[in-house]
TrEMBL record:
SUPFAM superfamilies: Oxidoreductase molybdopterin-binding domain. It comes from the Bacteria. InterPro entries: OxRdtase_Mopterin-bd_dom, OxRdtase_Mopterin-bd_sf. The chain crosses the membrane at residues 51-78, 114-135, 156-178, 190-211. Pfam families: Oxidored_molyb (PF00174). Residues 317-447 form the Oxidoreductase molybdopterin-binding domain. This is Oxidoreductase molybdopterin-binding domain-containing protein. Keywords: Membrane, Transmembrane, Transmembrane helix.
């Protein structure tokens, strides 16, 4: 896509033999540019220019806000105002928009989180192409000048840094590579707001230029322009057009086709994790697009029992569910199975972007609340056998608890839950994030949580 020259080590006209200290002082004062990428002749691709950058920018301008909005919706779906759910307790003003997350439609979280993850992955080739197209701007020298230039540079650095941080941490998280020296959830939330603020400033500054640049060339004409007829764009004040362009090795239509094909490939290799049946196995870029063994428990597992310290001995005949309300009740699995059971087909979706729809059978949470003498409109605090981890205990709102489809699930697709799917019992609430459908439940507390 580009051919870059190392450029001369000495700027034309620079006195030979001048001391390093004098050169450094000249660089800092902006009288001269440092060597290498700080000099215009270093960047030689004949494709870079305002028009190409604006095409990539337009795609990102359409896609990134949708990724951001669905991500913020996902945060609201965690109901972080409830005890035990707030994974970013110092969020401050960043949680101003939170609202009560509904249980209907049951597919809402599946759609919003699927869009957030799949669209984010699909935009990665476009983002990389956009960064490639503007990389000379990142090495502009001197770094600052007028107040307007300083604001533009600051917004650009925050925009690029924020985008890279959000995409890298998001991709690592959905691939289950928990290598962060910090908590992913608050970092991703704060990073999103920093990125959005920088994006708003950048769009306000650059939108007129984007519109002008897009109008400067015909998109259809560019798609018909061959490599032989590819020419650099006219010189621009932003320094994107190469000062000494090299001969083109690919046309602009070829570059656009390459980026578009990359995005479609990523889409095709990741979207299958949101589907059931054989399509799931096409998700080669997703950790959950695989086979989990024969039978009714063949669907995605986020965390196995072994990974969170749950062993079969804890879930055997001695297991009891403690239900707390006006009185305390302890129930064996056999006693739960003897209660009225209800069956619903409900989706389950996770923050990593995968989702599936299965048939769940269990006891209504409202019946368990009534059995403990709890208020009919109470929420519930759920505790798991899971050892440690952010979601070993969560709160469900009164709206979630009182929905007749909210179950303490005992079976899935007509069979007992497998251990990795939460045996002997798990929560299943319509439209709740997967981590709130707690597995290996040991206690339901319908009283006010501590």
């Amino acid at each position: 896509m580009s051919s870059a020259s190392d450029g001369p080590h000495r700027h034309p006209g620079e006195p030979a033999g001048r001391g390093a200290g004098a050169r450094l002082w000249a660089y800092l004062r902006g009288q001269e540019r440092p060597p290498g990428p700080f000099r215009p002749e270093f960047w030689r691709s004949p494709l870079r220019g305002p028009w190409l950058t604006s095409v990539f920018g337009l795609v990102l301008l359409a896609g990134l806000p949708l990724v951001a909005i669905t991500g913020l919706i996902s945060y609201a779906a965690y109901d972080p105002r409830l005890p035990g759910n707030d994974i970013t307790p110092e969020k401050g003003l960043f949680g101003f928009y939170l609202f009560d997350w509904p249980t209907s439609p049951v597919w809402l979280y599946r759609v919003t989180q699927g869009v957030h993850v799949i669209l984010g992955l699909t935009l990665v080739p476009v983002l990389l192409a956009k960064l490639w197209s503007v990389i000379p701007k990142l090495f502009a020298w001197p770094p600052t000048g007028s107040p307007a230039q300083t604001l533009e540079r600051a917004s650009l650095l925050l925009l690029v840094g924020g985008a890279v941080f959000e995409f890298v941490t998001g991709i690592l998280n959905i691939q289950l590579f928990y290598v962060f020296p910090f908590s992913f959830y608050p970092a991703h939330l704060y990073g999103a707001w920093i990125f959005l603020a920088a994006l708003a400033v950048h769009v306000a500054i650059k939108l007129p230029r984007l519109v002008t640049s897009l109008r400067s060339r015909s998109f259809r004409r560019e798609l018909r322009t061959s490599l032989r007829d590819t020419r650099p764009e006219p010189p621009d004040p932003d320094g994107l057009v190469a000062a000494a362009p090299a001969p083109p090795t690919i046309s602009r239509r070829g570059l656009l086709a390459f980026v578009g094909a990359g995005s479609l490939t990523v889409l095709g290799l990741s979207a299958g994790q949101t589907m059931d049946g054989p399509w799931r196995r096409t998700a080669l870029l997703a950790p959950h697009g695989r086979y989990y063994g024969p039978g009714p428990n063949d669907f995605q597992v986020n965390k196995t029992a072994a990974s969170v310290g749950v062993v079969a001995a804890e879930t055997g005949p001695e297991w009891r569910l403690t239900v707390r309300g006006a009185r305390q009740v302890r129930l064996s699995r056999e006693q739960l199975l003897a209660m009225p059971l209800y069956t619903y087909r409900l989706p389950i979706a996770c923050v990593e972007g995968w989702s599936t729809e299965q048939t769940w059978t269990g006891v209504r949470l409202t019946d368990l609340a009534r059995l403990s003498g709890a208020d009919g409109g109470a929420g519930v605090y759920v505790r798991s056998l899971q050892r440690g981890g952010v979601f070993s205990h969560v709160s469900l709102s009164a709206g979630q608890t009182t929905d007749p489809r909210s179950l303490l699930a005992l079976r899935v697709n007509g069979a007992d839950l497998s251990l990795d799917h939460g045996f002997p019992a798990r929560i299943m609430v319509p439209n709740a994030p997967g981590v709130h459908n707690t597995k290996w439940v040991r206690e339901l507390d319908f009283r006010a949580p501590p």
